Amino acid sequence: MTAAGTHRDDIGFLRLPATKYAQRTTIQHCRKEVIFVNQNSVSILNTETQQTTHALQGLTFSPTSMTTGCGYLAAGGQRSELMIRQLSSTWFAHTVVGGSINNAMSISKHAGSTRLLICNNDQTIKVYSLPDLHLVTTIPLPTAVNYASVSPDGRKLLAVGDTSEVFLFNISASGSYERIGTMTATSDAGFSCSWNQSSERFAVASQDGYVSVWDIRSTNKLAQLASKQVCHDVNPQVKGACRCVKFSPSGSIDLLVFSEHVSYFNVVDARTFDGRQSVSVSPAGLDQHISGIAFAPDSKSLFVGTESSILEYSVDALMRRSFPYGSLN
């Protein structure tokens, strides 16, 4: 890992070992329960009862993307298919949004309404209002779009795609999206991006095995973090590719987690970026694909999806809320 100043490895942010749930996943997401995709179904695992129920089943497509937010669940497909369900009722809608692969989606309340953003391989972000599925606007970009994230305060939009460029937008009170900046991450495509809970910092995970972090008040990087397998030069652009990045969403936990293509995920101190914990999800000598990562809403647990199971790690919240020293300037 590289960042400003020195760094410490193997900090105990998470308590090991993980609790293991024997659920096969292709991608997964977490809220109070764990929602995950397997083949043509989207299921919900209650980690207290360990019971699994189907949120969507018998889909006519295998989802390539899935998200939840504001009481809705959305699944997108390889041929621009879209399925929306309201989690508190039986309401659902199925449509095709046009373009190519729906790479990623996000749901948030901003610009005075609930909006669904769909990142597509046709070089657009399609913005729909919910629940009426009205197409609010289409945001064009110069590359296939892999991921987009709206800041928690609803004022900024971040997007990455099949280029090293990172696109920053302002969201106006009237609901329009204006590009206000373009940064460069590293040397390869961006897979994922995330905002911290204060909407002041954002991070981008890239194919070449690096996570770049910025403060919204500067175009200079705050930190650049290397994956464990890039650090050890083990097929860096294959095994060590950074696939998913997430900030802890609540409280004073202040962590950043990012997954590698296989076997490892990394938990980083998001206050100073000078310490991290690298965790293997595979037995020694074996590689296992990581299908997704997500914090619980209270940031006290971290869920990691693999091809054969869902792993739950407890965050050492007491340690994160205890500062070893302080200073007043």
From TrEMBL:
For the DUF2415 domain, which residue ranges apply?
Answer: 240-277
Question: Which positions carry the signal peptide feature in this UniProt record?
Answer: none
Protein name per Swiss-Prot or TrEMBL: DUF2415 domain-containing protein
| UniProt keyword annotation of NAD present | no
**InterPro entries, per the entry:** DUF2415, WD40/YVTN_repeat-like_dom_sf, WD40_repeat_dom_sf, WD40_rpt
What Gene3D superfamilies does UniProt report for this protein, alphabetically? YVTN repeat-like/Quinoprotein amine dehydrogenase
Check the record and name the Pfam families matching this protein.
DUF2415, WD40
Top-rank taxon of the source lineage equals Eukaryota
WD repeats (start-end): 183-224
Keywords recorded for this protein, A-Z: WD repeat
